[in-house]
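From the shared-data thread, chain only:
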Amino acid sequence: MQSGRKKRIMIACVTFETAKVTDPIMFYEINKAHIIHYVKEPANKSTKVYLSFYERVLEIIKEDSPRKVEVVEHNERVTDFSIMLKTVLKIIGEEQNAARQNGENCEIYVNISSGGADFAAAATIASMMVPGTIPFSVGTKEYTVDIEGIKENYFKDGKPVGLTMSTFDPRQLPSYTIQMPEEHLVRGLRLLNDRNKAKLSVTSGSMVSALKDKGIWFRNVTPEKSNRKTNQRQNEAVYYQRDFVDRWLKSKWVVKDDLNSRYILTDEGELTIKTFYTE
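Structure, as tokens:
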């Protein structure tokens, strides 16, 4: 049985950023922060630069947070996609298991903006693999370098170069399959949304008819000869509930609006029809 306590946990990576890590901690009122960074042992001149950013993040958390934030350090190679995926998945799994054992409500926020490309890719995929996690990104409102600073630091011989002068050879990432939602479910959901907006009927009978018109209905219901039309409508209503509504509900794409006696799309449902099979 879960208690009313809510634990807010954040996973983030520190390389050359501080505000992108610390500001969300204040915004989401995080209780516990898993901070991933990498420093070789023994530390040398170059790795001490990375360490200074991590230490500054700790200072800001301690200085600015109105409540005590538990910080868990993870010293892992942040430029290795597989290690980052393993690390993030392990943190999520351990926190979810601990929450179940302690009877706590647990929210896990995954900051995909604060680390490098490998961490961002791994954190995004991990969030999609594990239900219940909340991935988020942080945009830059103000930069530390002005226009003149950009010209001084990111140009060479008057030509724009950027932070990177040269690169290692490209490394292909491992391939992981994340199942796309089934096409007929998304197209049926979009049809439901369109009919809701147009204030058209969304009863099972009208929806089945509309699904048939759009070529999204695949059940071939053959009723008994006696009372053929009534049996067909009843059977189709059952299959519409089973093949569409129940699966929309399971995916948290719709909720029942009891006041108007119809299913309406959730934010996740809205995002789904805007993202998939839009052609």
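The longest strand covers residues 6-13.
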